[in-house]
Amino acid sequence: MPSFVALYGGLGAGKTALVRGMGAEAGTSEVRSPTFTIVHEYETNPQLIHFDAYRLADAEELLAIGFEEYLTQNAILVLEWAERVPEALPKERLELHLSGSGDEPREFVLMPFGARYESVVNAL
Hints:
nucleotide-binding; about 25% helix; globular; metal-binding; alpha/beta; six-stranded mixed sheet; magnesium; cytoplasm; tRNA threonylcarbamoyladenosine biosynthesis protein TsaE
């Protein structure tokens, strides 16, 4: 069963840095922003699949690269700029809203959608 994390936040909020940390925990130091390629797949355990919707006009562009097929993989899927493609988001997901930039402290707000993610957030 895939895990889906939707990241929200402005430029410099730390979305890619957060995914780098997730990648390091999963076993890779190769995480970089997929702004121009839209998706990067990392052969980690579990597999990490990193999307960036910043340059997309709408959800149709994300769906055109096979996004729905990715949702069936047993992997951790992370989508930056989720606010740009709300129609593509799975019903069950964890939303992470980041605020702050530069040297400012970051604020994280977790919003679970679905019982699985509610239990994750409640365990924190």
